[in-house]
Amino acid sequence: MATNRTFTMLKPDSLEKGNTGAILEKINAAGFRIVAMKMTQMSTKDAETFYAVHNERPFFRELVEYMTRGPIVAAILEKDNAVEDFRTLIGATNPADAAEGTIRKLYAASMGENAVHGSDSDENAEIEGNFHFSGREQF
Ligand code: DAT
Ligand code: MG
């Protein structure tokens, strides 16, 4: 069966609130296989690079501050239709608009602190996974 991959980060607020285990359990229960995972902290340069597409947006500095303020859990996940199914599992960017039962509905406080990242395309999943993991760290 063909499978593909997406990239996720449990953002600093998720770790601060002790939600890491609960979020990983939801990811597991939804049928994603973890093929890379680590706890790490992004530098300012890392976050500016990772979110470069947003660098003209008014919230960019706030986003960089948030993403660098503490550790994250980064992971690559494998499943059929991984990118789209993971976006469905996490819910809308703004938790106020996220569907019931989604990770952002359950665990995100606001648009600015929305608990998790999920890649938005197969191409970006590969770029983002390779940003955080060497080939040897991807199983
Ligand atoms: P997503 O994370 O759902 O892919 P995005 O790529 O549009 O959303 O934006 C990346 C992150 O930037 C998002 O998770 C939270 C932050 N962000 C986006 N829009 C924002 C806004 N209007 N105000 C504050 N933060 C925002
Ligand atoms: Mg995005």
TrEMBL record:
Residue intervals of the Nucleoside diphosphate kinase-like domain: 3-137
Which domain of life does this protein belong to?
Bacteria
Q: Keyword Cytoplasm: yes or no? A: yes
Alphabetic keyword roster? ATP-binding, Cytoplasm, Kinase, Magnesium, Metal-binding, Nucleotide metabolism, Nucleotide-binding, Phosphoprotein, Transferase
Which cofactor does this sequence's record say it needs? Mg(2+)
List of catalytic residues? 117 (pros-phosphohistidine intermediate)
The protein's matches in SMART domains, at most eight in alphabetical order, are given as: NDK
Q: Which reaction does it catalyse?
A: a 2'-deoxyribonucleoside 5'-diphosphate + ATP = a 2'-deoxyribonucleoside 5'-triphosphate + ADP; a ribonucleoside 5'-diphosphate + ATP = a ribonucleoside 5'-triphosphate + ADP
EC code(s) of this entry: 2.7.4.6
InterPro entries in UniProt: NDK-like_dom, NDK-like_dom_sf, Nucleoside_diP_kinase
A Gene Ontology molecular-function term? Answer: nucleoside diphosphate kinase activity
Which of this chain's residues are annotated to bind ATP? 11, 59, 87, 93, 104, 114
| Known partners and oligomeric status | Homotetramer.
Identify its protein family: Belongs to the NDK family.
Cross-referenced HAMAP family: NDP_kinase
Q: What is this protein called?
A: Nucleoside diphosphate kinase
Q: Which gene encodes it?
A: ndk
